[in-house]
Amino acid sequence: MKNILIFLFTIIASSSLYSQEVSLNPGAIFSECEHCPEMVVVPPGKFTMGYDGGVNEERYEGPPHEVQISYTFAIGKYEITNSQFKKFIDSTNYKPGTNCRMWTGKTVELVKGLDWRNPGYGKPIDDNEPVACVSWYDAKAYVEWLSDFSGKSYRLPSEAEWEYVARGGTDTLWAWGNDPDEGCKIANYYDQSAAGLRPWEPAKCDDGQRIIAKVGQLEPNIFGVYDIIGNVWEWAEDCYQVPYKNQPNDGKPFLISGKCEKRVVRGGAWHSRATWQKPSFRGRDTEDFVTQVFGIRVVRDIEN
After folding, report:
1. What is the pLDDT of residues 72-107, one digit of tens each?
2. For the whole prediction, is pTM greater than 0.85?
3. How far apart are alpha carbons 301 and 41 in whole angstroms?
4. Does an H or E element contain 161, and which?
5. Considering only the top CATH level, what class is 1-304?
6. Do residues 1 and 45 touch, judged by C-beta distance below 8 A?
7. What is the three-class DSSP state of 69?
8. Which residues on neighbouring strands pair with residue 155, listed in sequence order?
9. What are the domain boundaries of the chain?
């Protein structure tokens, strides 16, 4: 990770430019249209993906394996917001998933009528909160539209790309270290602000965010990416397999021919316990699964 760390202390600060004149050098920040997400250019690098453990056999996070990402790519500085998703809906009349699932006091249940416009927060959504209650199909439809709208190649991240960015050059259990209770500076997860909302033990720190938070409220990681841990889970391109078997070691997604039973989702959310906030932790759900804690972060290909 030395090459990453050398670069990261020279991150380029730039305003959003809506043209092809944006810098695509590592560290640059750009946006290609008024409603396009801000993107951070990420350099190539090598890291160990996964962890030899997990909460149970189905949630095994390994075996650890080395991944070499030899290309530059850009990833969303923030999760896709409600206002950005609304632009997509208004432009296409696309019909996203409905009957969103949410915690109802004892378990997670499907609630008729809930959707991205009303994810069940008990308050109106904010334009700058991450969109939620979106399925993998919805996420794919959004990136396809964004590619057509911008004329550039946008897509969902592979889980290797996602974990590479989420680790931010670290090799600790959590992106912030080995103590599960010290993540509140960078992650909106289940902590003292949210204590009592769920039956599990909250982290001992306080991030000041009781439920969903507007994007960018906490500190970015060393790549300059916000909320990649916590706030909402983020869909990946990969088909889920456990343990890792034929996982590509070059940053590409694991795909199969035929029907993929479950897709990978990463990063934890505002009500997720600390165990689920590790960069190596892997969610897995069906492509049509809609819940108030699943959202979108995008990647943009860069010619290397």
Report:
1. 999 999 999 999 999 999 999 999 999 999 999 889
2. yes
3. 10
4. helix 159-167
5. alpha beta
6. yes
7. strand
8. 299
9. 1-304
